[in-house]
Write a structure and sequence with these properties.
The longest helix has 19 residues. This protein starts with a helix and ends with a helix. The chain is 46% helix and 24% strand. A hairpin with a 5-residue loop joins strand 2 and strand 3. A 5-stranded mixed β-sheet has the order 3-2-1-4-5. The chain has 8 helices and 5 strands. By secondary structure, it is an alpha/beta fold.
C-alpha cells in the first residue's frame, strides 16, 4: 500500500485525517522494530507449519510491481498460532523457499512434524533439504481447488459440500464412509455412477 492508500484507509475506517508525510515518518520509525521481529529467535519445535505465498501489487521506485509475499505460520506445542516470518520477493520459487526454510532453521527452528503447503513444484524437495524428517502435506484448500478444475461450474458448490463431509469428519471411520459415498456419487468409472453429470 502507498502512504496515500494508508491515509485513505485510516480516514475511511476511523474518520482520522493524517498526512502522507506523517505516515512515512511513522513507518520509517518502526522499521528497526520490524527488522528485530524478522530476526527474532524461534522455538526449536513447531509441530505444524503452514507455508504459502500470496501475490500483491507493491509500489517500488515509483512503479507498481507484482510481488510474492512468503508467509510461514507455525502452531506451537501449546496449540497457538504464531507468524514465524514474512519475506518478499519478485516471484515465487522453490529456490527462494529454500532460503526461507534455511532462515527459519538459522533462527532456531530445528524440527517441524508437518509442513502444510500448496502444490508448488519443487517445494517438497526444498523442505526435505532443510527438514528431512518433516511430513509434507498438501493444504486441503489447495486439494479442493485442484479437484474443482475437473467439475462443471454448476456442480462445483455441490462437490465442495460433499468434500467437506470427508475433510470435516469427526473420526477416521466416518471419513472413510463419506469418502466411499463420495466415490460412488462423483467417480464416473464407478459401476453405480452415471456418466451423464459430465455433460449436463
Amino acid at each position: 500500500m502507498t502512504t496515500r492508500d494508508i491515509q485513505a484507509q485510516l480516514e475511511d475506517l476511523y474518520g482520522v485525517e493524517i498526512s502522507p508525510s506523517f505516515i512515512s515518518t511513522v513507518t520509517d520509525a518502526i522499521i528497526p522494530e520490524v527488522r528485530t521481529w524478522q530476526n527474532r529467535p524461534l522455538e526449536s519445535l513447531y509441530p505444524v507449519v503452514f507455508l504459502d505465498a500470496i501475490r500483491i501489487k507493491s509500489r517500488s521506485d515509483g512503479t507498481v510491481q507484482n510481488m510474492a509475499v512468503y508467509l510461514a505460520l507455525g502452531i506451537n506445542v501449546d496449540g497457538l498460532k504464531e507468524v514465524l516470518g514474512i519475506w518478499i520477493a519478485k516471484t515465487e520459487g522453490a529456490k527462494f523457499w529454500l532460503s526461507v526454510l534455511t532462515d527459519l532453521k538459522n533462527r532456531g527452528l530445528q524440527d517441524i512434524f508437518i509442513a502444510t503447503v500448496d502444490g508448488f513444484k519443487g517445494f517438497p524437495d526444498a523442505i526435505e533439504t532443510v527438514y528431512p524428517q518433516t511430513q509434507v502435506q498438501l493444504c486441503i484448500v489447495h486439494m479442493i481447488r485442484n479437484n474443482l478444475k475437473y467439475v462443471s461450474w454448476k456442480r462445483r458448490k455441490e462437490m465442495v459440500a460433499n468434500l467437506k463431509t470427508i475433510y470435516r469428519a469427526d473420526t477416521v471411520e466416518m471419513a472413510e464412509e463419506n469418502l466411499d459415498a463420495f466415490a460412488k456419487k462423483w467417480n464416473p468409472t464407478h459401476p453405480t455412477v452415471s456418466r451423464s453429470w459430465y455433460t449436463n
